[in-house]
Amino acid sequence: DGMVMWTSKLYATDPLVINTQKRDGEHVTIELKLTNQLPPTSPECMRIMDCLLRECFRFIDMEQVGRNFFFPKLAQKLQQHKLEIWPGFVACIQQFETQLLM
């Protein structure tokens, strides 16, 4: 919806004001204001990391099947068994003590 932006960088000014121009020439002012900082142990951080991980997998042409990601282009066919083996990953992000781990 455009109401939330995640960043790993704190900007020098708050609010950060960006003046830009749309394709049709109209001038637009964008104001970014820090409203919250999440501790690394926050459940929201786990959700953000999960979204980033999924985007990375899609960027490298992996396909999601269930909860796992696979490379269908690298499939190995076993004709005698009528099977295909897709290499892939089972990725999980969880909190361990004070850190998020994958």
Give a quick summary of the entry:
The chain has 102 residues and is α+β, with helices and mostly antiparallel strands.
Could you characterize the architecture of this molecule?
The two termini are 28 Å apart. The longest helix is centred in the middle third of the chain and has 17 residues, at 43-59. The chain has a 3-stranded antiparallel beta sheet, with no helix packed on it. Strands 1-2 form a two-stranded antiparallel ribbon. Strands 5-6 form a two-stranded antiparallel ribbon. By secondary structure, the protein is an alpha+beta fold. The chain has one helix at residues 43-59; strands at 16-21, 27-32, 63-65, 68-70, 76-78, 83-85, 88-89, 94-96, 99-101. It contains 1 helix and 9 strands, in the order E-E-H-E-E-E-E-E-E-E.
